[in-house]
Amino acid sequence: MYLTGVLCYHIRYKFINIKCKLEDISSTTIIRYDVIEELRHTYEQAIDYMREVDTFLSWRALLMLATVLFTDCFTIYDARVWSAGKDEFIVFITIVCFSNAVLLAVIILSAQVHGAAKSVGDVLPKVRLSDSNVDTGISVQLFLSRVLGSDVGISVAGFFVIQKSTFLTIVETLMSYAAVVLQLPTSKA
Q1: Domain extent for 106
Q2: What backbone torsions phi and psi does residue 161 show, to the nearest 5 degrees?
Q3: What span, in angstroms and rounded, lies between the C-alpha atoms of 102 and 64?
Q4: Tens digit of each residue's pLDDT (9 = 90 or more) over 27-48
Q5: Is the pTM of this model over 0.85?
Q6: How many domains does the chain have?
Q7: Domain for residue 187, yes or no?
């Protein structure tokens, strides 16, 4: 997991570096074709790295998400009527908190990579092409369509890419579940 985090930060740095270079060249009057192609190549390389990370984490993310949501729901329900000792409950809550922390780390890593990749798309349209040749303009347009057309990040078994909104969706689901569970009558057998 630690190595995956280091790789994600390295990939995020590549995207941020591309964005900074694009901001620098957008202020110049003549944009060179080879510079745009180099940045586009670096972007493709970063996407390839992210695909490798995603290949490693994709199914693990699905299992982690499903397991954590299940244990969180179980914890919310069972906390109301816990019949075992207090020590067992503390151990159980500690395990649940640890698994939530690992899931949160994966969500943060993926959201940061996703945001950095999409930030390139915010800068690319600002590149001035008025004094550049046609090939440079076509290269910028291809680069922009690639950036806007790809979802970069850790996917959950290919269903969706983890973004900032994923965390809020999980919290919203758990809060809704907790609201329903709290309305159920408690019965001790």
Answers
A1: 2-182
A2: -90, 135
A3: 9
A4: 776 778 888 899 999 999 999 9
A5: no
A6: 1
A7: no
